[in-house]
Amino acid sequence: MKSPMPASENQFERDQKIWSSLKKAIANSSGFRRWQREQNISLEQNLDEQLRRYLQETLATLAY
Question: Would you state the pLDDT for residue 6?
């Protein structure tokens, strides 16, 4: 029988699954793909870093 995970680990796993789903949705969005083309981003660059930059710039634009 499996022993239950501590609540913090369970929450971490849920957060990871949510981020993974969000990452896929954002990466497949037309806005993100257009941003990649405009930025001349190579496919070799880390997707997490690309998403962080994209979200940061998008939020900055919205806040303006």
Answer: 63
